[in-house]
Write a structure and sequence with these properties.
Arc Repressor Mutant, subunit A, two-stranded antiparallel ribbon, alpha+beta, 250 residues
Length: 250
């Protein structure tokens, strides 16, 4: 279904069933029930000539999810301030389009000579990063379970979580505390702290994190976690999330 929606999003004039079949290299007999189901739920609309195009539900869904640019515009002053208050590199990340990793969409470097490395556009594994687990923990349960079943829980260090039960337990802790701490799970000697950012409908839109050498981060875990949570709350508010509105049910 995602392939259909992506194809029609790039075809504003709409496509007939035969064209969808040709573009996706799928038989019309398989596509027709999917097209009908998407049309019935408003994700597609059918024109007078029988062509399919995106419907109102798909447009509304797209508008409800902040783009990386919108998130960056809302976040930049706050993440700069977070770096100045903590002295550590600050990252802003979102879920990758293939749901296998997080992508850094903004970064403010620490002034320290020794600091956490990583650039905008870099991808990091969901299961071994603070931002990845902060986002995973607050996704809707069905979406989260689908991602978890497809993840390759590769070992990066001796501390990497590589079993699904252990990862699920870790995500439950994140949901309870609202913050994720990773100690050397991706890179030896480096640690991170992240909190989720929510959009106006309560859906997790990304994560805000600080990263730095473990010997600087670990002694200040409680204070740094509070700083990250406070910044994530500010960013959520700037995206229209109300403090009295609960996040989408995980």
């Amino acid at each position: 279904m995602v392939d259909i929606l992506e194809l029609l999003a790039a075809s504003p004039d709409g496509l007939a069933l035969r064209d969808v079949s040709a573009e996706l290299e799928a038989p019309k007999s398989s596509l027709l029930p999917l097209l009908r189901a998407l049309t019935a739920r408003g994700y597609l609309a059918q024109g007078r000539a029988g062509e399919y195009r995106l419907g109102r539900s798909a447009v509304d869904l797209g508008a409800a999810v902040p783009t990386a640019n919108a998130l960056m515009e809302a976040a930049r002053p706050a993440v700069v301030d977070l770096m100045r208050r903590t002295g550590e590199t600050v990252f802003l990340g979102t879920l990758s389009s293939d749901h296998t990793s997080i992508v850094f969409v903004d970064k403010v470097d620490s002034d320290h000579i020794i600091r956490y490395a990583g650039g905008v556009g870099d991808r990091r594994p969901l299961h071994a990063t603070a931002i990845g687990k902060a986002i995973l923990a607050f996704l809707p349960a069905r979406e989260r379970d689908g991602i978890l079943k497809s993840l390759s829980l590769s070992r990066h260090t001796d501390r990497t979580v590589t079993s699904l039960p252990a990862l699920r337990a870790s995500l439950e802790d994140v949901r309870k505390t609202g913050v994720c701490v990773t100690i050397e799970e991706l890179v030896p000697g480096a640690s991170g702290i992240a909190a989720p950012i929510f959009e106006r409908h309560g859906r997790v839109a990304g994560g805000c994190a600080i990263g730095g050498p473990t010997d600087r981060v670990r002694p200040r875990l409680r204070a740094l976690a509070a700083e990250v949570k406070a910044t994530a709350a500010i960013l959520s508010a700037r995206l229209g999330h109300r403090a009295d509105r609960k996040a989408a049910r995980p």
